[in-house]
Fold Malectin-like domain-containing protein.
Amino acid sequence: MEVLELFLSAVMAAAFCLSPSLVHAQDQSGFISIDCGITEGSSYNDKITGLRYISDENYTDAGVNKDISPKINKTDIDKQYLNLRSFPDGNKICYTLKPLRSKNKYLIRAGFLYGNYDELDDVPRFDLYLGVNWWATVTLFDASDRFTTEIVHLLSSDSIDICLVNTGFGTPFISVLELRLLDDKTHSNVSQLVFDRLGLALSDSIRFSVDVYDRIWSPFPFQYWEVKQTRYAIKSPDDDKNGVPNAIMQGAAVPINQSDAIVFYFSRDDPTTQFFLYMHFAEIENLPQNQTREFNIYVNKTLWSGPIVPKYLQRTTVSSISPLKGTDFTVSINKTINSTLPPLLNAIEIYLVHELLQAETYEDDVHAVMNIKSYYKVKRYWQGDPCGPKTARWQGLNCSYDAYDPPRIISLDLSSSGLTGEISPDVLNLKMIKYLDLSNNSLRGSIPDFLSRLPYLRVLNLSENDFSGSVPSELNERSKNGTLILNVEKNKLLCSSDCKNKAIVPVVATVIPVLILVLIAVAVFWFCKRRNQGMVNNSFICMA
């Protein structure tokens, strides 16, 4: 018996999303569509999708705009991929998307096309991060290759950082970044990537506005089946959150030979990979009473679901309750002995569980260092999470990492950074800091007492600044007993101990000479006065 085979490969997919529903999708509320690299302040409506794309000026403050090489064939390239933003400087560059809705799911999609924009003909490779967690490695085969990846993520705050991390294999860049608000409460809150999303009867890819949630559906490349179509709308279940478009469900694939099964395969090299599988069915033929369509679904020869009798013009979705685990899967849809018709299949969705295990930096530490950055207008590539990922933490910072607990900032080095003003009070909120270096700047004012209230501080370098007044007594005491290494050298107006005692010396040195002169003058005055009194009688005058 011949078998209809649907070959699904991990190579074909970068990453995609769950089957969600979107809030106010038709008018693009909850959509952010960024064409990276277009002129600041500019925007446009895409001629094909109608989506409105804007500049990335409000989402990142790094990088340079570039156009792909004129030598690249642009015939089939979407407008969003004709330009890009390149990041030649900095180890980690982030787009901060906000304000968003905390505790809501978002579909996030990123696209990349190198296009030999730098005329080096050297395709880069770099990592893409969702906050502090690895999302994907951007791998392009040549200058015209396009890499697209999607993820569905439940936000824990009102913003999300999408970061590009330089791994030493060329300059990171990005072409397009898209975000869509979802209203999906039916599936797991674990972040998921799309392995494949296919419409079996499609002849071309579709997305917004055919799919009001702007999911991208692709046709299956091997059409060894008969396609059935209907012009009638397909009804979704009342409690449905999948929202599969009518354009997908109005077509179905059936084996040409009625005795055949529908079989497809998917696999991954990593044995720890976990999959979620969704299959969508709708009977699109009004069957006579003597005809039935009934089938079972097998995964690796084990009954997975069934028997299934798809309803006329109504969608039935069969999905995983728990993820499938393994490397190779064979899914077979077989007609039952009671069925007079072969099985059908309208659409397939396969998702990869993507665990985000790295915790974000402790929130109070983040607020503190962000305020310090703003207070001093720090001119460094401080973007995204301060401590994550470990290989791309902020320059001048060191952090402690303890299993899955939030990292804590334990070291801050802002030496020779052009700092002015006083020491920011936000330093006190870095409760776990051990090492603080603010040397060789133009900081002024007194050294604040609150530095002595940092319990874990072991090294404090305030040398080569313009501090004045006295060093707080508690800092001096800790320096003397060896619990703190304190450096306050080359602060001309600063007293290392009590300035009052030091002030006695210059005061005494000034007052005593003046007092002596006054006493001499008084003595001379009285001497002359008495002489004059004596000389008057003798007609002499003493001129003093």
In short: Helices lie at 246-249, 363-376, 473-481, 499-536. Residues 1-25, 501-511, 534-544 have pLDDT under 50 and may be disordered. DSSP finds four helices and 35 strands in the chain. The chain has four domains: 1-13+194-357, 22-183, 363-495, 508-544.
